[in-house]
Design a protein that fits this description.
35% helix, Guanine Nucleotide Dissociation Inhibitor, domain 2, 16 helices, globular, alpha/beta, FAD/NAD(P)-binding domain, 3 domains
Length: 500
């Protein structure tokens, strides 16, 4: 624990945290460490939010996030409490980081070896190896400055940007233009452009609507590495839950919240089964729109239904969790299957919502690294196809799309799963809505478009209800497990500032 904390003004406060995703767990840890009395209410039977676990017949699947990126964020989080990630779990650096199958028959591996990756780039385009160096130098600078001065430092108001430090640190950052424009300045070959942009899926965006600043993700990918934590992302959830328990957080699972009533110093949080939790302050890690539209009376909402309808949501997903007989040698732990032109798929997500005919998708095979996730002689595999939030999701549509995806995997990777599946579960738009109260069934939250970044995202502190706060992927800094961990810190800091 910190002997002197900027959050000490929260000591003695009673706080209910609604939702046990990474944002809620992180916030709970910071508040409890500061001396607050913290109770966390989770709708579902397990903690972790979208990082839930599916266990069936000896198979164990990470249902949501499966990439462990930005290890420095996890190290910084645990260090705040005098801990290290390795106090709770070990990491394995993946080799390759990931494999890409292009649908013209081409295949490429991205490795934990910059020289090898430069040679790969050079093989596609003369001079691209050296330009990769230039690109990554720019990405590293954006990451270093962006994280310290624009991610860990919250700037919720326009006046926060009228500051000499902001001008000094932002000079030279890629603040204007799209990722597509930025990448085209370095690479002509469309496959190299795709390699530099695939991480946009983690931000819920497309090359033409995501700000160029997010080229910093290439530093994360190429320079910092891709890892697998013991037990998958579920192992990280367990670690943070253990830490929160050590700090004194009280957990209640199977506790969906029906109503948030009151204001600072006099809140009542009521669950669907009739229990009532009294507290001084409330933090919601539930879907932001759901919290405002369903848990609060109309006069206590910051935004109306039209506002939420006008937002650009990150994609939903069609997921297949598959237990498979035998090995899948052609696939890596992380595998991407990409059309050589993926513009049509992005159009079906953001411009003209529809189920994509020629999808780009992701395959995860954790049994390549972890023997515990599948019975002996079997492979654990899930397929994830990003699709538009809000699409019609019916059993008939899922069955047809399941066949399309399995056919596509066989055709483009050489792995025919169709007669080897011993366990199968699907998850799609309706499941995101039902399990996570997710607006339009988005898998991630608000997309990182130019007009939904930084101060243009919904605030941590409610403007309508004194003492009500928000954390997680709808707020700053945004989407992704590392960002949600940081959002917990930013929410706690705002609460402490208000208390002072």
């Amino acid at each position: 624990m910190n002997s002197v904390s900027a959050l000490d003004s929260l000591a003695g406060e009673s706080v209910v945290v609604v939702g046990g995703g990474f944002g809620g767990l992180s916030t709970a840890c910071y508040l409890a460490d500061a001396g607050a009395d913290v109770t966390l209410l989770e709708k579902n039977e397990q903690l972790g939010g979208r990082a839930s676990t599916l266990e069936r017949d000896g198979f164990r699947f990470d249902m949501g996030p499966s990439w462990y990126l930005m290890p420095d964020v996890f190290e910084r989080f645990f260090a705040y409490f005098g801990k290290r990630p390795e106090d709770y779990y070990e990491l394995t650096r993946l080799d390759p980081h990931y494999r890409i199958f292009f649908k013209d028959g081409d295949r490429v591996d991205m490795l934990p070896d910059i020289a090898a990756n430069k040679a790969t780039f050079e093989s596609y385009e003369p001079g691209a190896g050296d330009r990769l160096d230039d690109y990554l130098r720019k990405a590293e600078r954006n990451y270093r400055i962006g994280m310290e001065h624009f991610v860990y430092t919250d700037r919720p108001a326009l006046t926060d940007y009228i500051d000499l430090d902001v001008f000094r640190y932002s000079w030279g950052l890629s603040l204007v233009g799209s990722m597509q424009d930025h990448v085209e300045n370095y690479f002509d070959h469309p496959k190299l452009q795709q390699i530099m942009q695939y991480t946009l899926v983690f931000l819920g965006g497309a090359p033409n609507n995501t700000p160029a600043l997010y080229n910093l993700m290439s530093h994360v990918d190429f320079n910092m590495g891709v890892y697998y934590p013991d037990g998958g992302l579920a192992g990280v959830v367990d670690a943070i839950v253990d830490l929160a328990g050590e700090l004194g957080v009280e957990f209640h699972t199977d506790s969906p919240v029906a109503e948030i009533a009151g204001r600072r110093g006099g809140f009542a949080v009521r669950t669907e089964d009739g229990r009532e939790f009294l507290c001084d302050q409330v933090v919601s890690d539930a879907d932001y729109a759901h919290t405002e539209q369903e848990l609060l009376p109309e006069k206590k909402r910051q935004y109306d239904a039209d506002y939420w309808d006008s937002r650009t949501y990150a994609p939903s997903a069609f997921l297949l969790y598959l237990g498979v007989e035998g090995d899948v040698d052609e696939l890596a732990h992380h595998t991407l299957v990409l059309p050589t032109d993926w513009d049509d798929h992005f159009e079906t997500i953001f411009d003209d919502p529809a189920w994509p005919d020629d999808p780009a998708y992701y395959l995860c095979v954790p049994s390549k690294t972890d023997d515990s996730v599948a019975p002996e002689g079997h492979s654990n595999l899930f397929a994830l196809v990003p699709i538009a939030a809000g699409l019609e999701d019916t059993p008939e549509r899922r069955e047809r799309y399941r066949d399309l995806v399995l056919d596509d995997i066989a055709e483009n990777t050489g792995v025919d799963l169709r007669d080897r599946i011993v366990l199968e579960e699907s998850f799609c738009v309706n499941d995101f809505k039902e399990r996570y109260n997710s607006t339009q069934g988005t898998a991630l939250g608000l997309a990182h478009t130019l007009f939904q970044t930084a101060l243009l995202r919904p605030p941590h502190g409610s403007d309508a209800v004194d003492g009500l706060y928000f954390t997680g992927s709808f707020t700053t800094p945004g989407i992704g497990v590392p960002m949600c961990l940081i959002s917990g810190q930013l929410t706690a800091e705002e609460m402490a500032e208000d208390a002072r």
